[in-house]
Design goal:
256 residues; mainly alpha; 14 helices; 2 strands; 77% helix
């Protein structure tokens, strides 16, 4: 399935987003993390939706789909749910991100309260509204759950592959490393998280994920178009989230 022409424009807007150059201080990074943590969280729900549909997760076991696709999803789930932290202890990437936020001094109360609401059975959108999360966060996560609840499998896979993987560019990593030189005790875990993200979501996973989308769409042009359209929408939502973060940065407010 050819994606470069259809998605390259919006993807470049994200990779080259001015947000990365506007993160000047530790306070800016705290604001960034307070928004981005919800994207880290809802990614897990998208991943688990794919695992549920592409593998057998309930007895009695029967083989589902292709072994290569099962391997891809199970490998990514393992890495996301039970990687290791700086001390070699098992941890999910989401929980690692929370550790990084604690080191930063970023506020984790909203996302932790969201988890409590969900654990007590409150619907996702109701919980986000109750917490009065920023509109851009609510829209981003609502889109993700619309995909999970309504989109066909091939479209979910496209959003996962082209809309949620490998979108943290090298320039962002360079920025964090620059800030780490200024705040070494507060950015060690955040830098480690980014390094693990880049390592885990490297060329191997990207290649397998693209294969997964191609296999699910096959030669069906309608499926291919549907997959590309939702992937494009997911990138648009990421750009809107980045726009909102940039507008909320303390340094931006000082400049204004």
């Amino acid at each position: 399935m050819e994606t470069n022409g259809r998605l390259q424009g919006i993807r470049q807007q994200i990779v080259n987003h001015p947000l990365y150059q506007q993160l000047y201080s530790i306070e800016d990074l705290r604001v960034f993390a307070s928004y981005h943590v919800f994207a880290v969280w809802d990614f897990m729900s998208l991943l688990k939706s794919l695992q549920r549909q592409l593998t057998c997760v309930a007895p009695p076991w029967v083989p589902v789909g292709s072994a290569s696709t099962r391997f891809l999803i199970n490998e990514i789930v393992t890495g996301e749910e039970s990687d290791t932290d700086l001390n070699g202890q098992r941890i999910s990437h989401f929980e690692l991100y929370l550790q990084a936020m604690d080191e930063l001094g970023a506020d984790t109360t909203p996302v932790k309260q969201l988890l409590l609401y969900l654990q007590h059975g409150m619907p996702v959108r109701q919980a986000m509204q109750k917490l009065k999360l920023p509109d851009a966060v609510q829209q981003f996560c609502s889109f993700t759950f619309d995909v999970i609840e309504k989109a066909p499998l091939h479209a979910q896979a496209a959003v996962f592959t082209y809309g949620r993987e490998d979108l943290i560019p090298d320039m962002f990593m360079s920025m964090v490393q620059r800030l780490q030189a200024l705040y070494p005790s507060q950015l060690a875990t955040f830098t480690y998280y980014l390094q693990r993200h880049i390592e885990v979501d490297g060329d191997h996973h990207s290649y397998l994920a693209a294969q997964m989308v191609a296999e699910l769409c096959g030669a069906d042009e309608n499926k291919q178009q549907e997959a590309l359209e939702l992937a494009h929408q997911s990138l648009e939502m990421r750009k809107r989230l980045w726009d909102a973060v940039a507008a909320a940065l303390p340094s931006r407010r000082v400049e204004a």
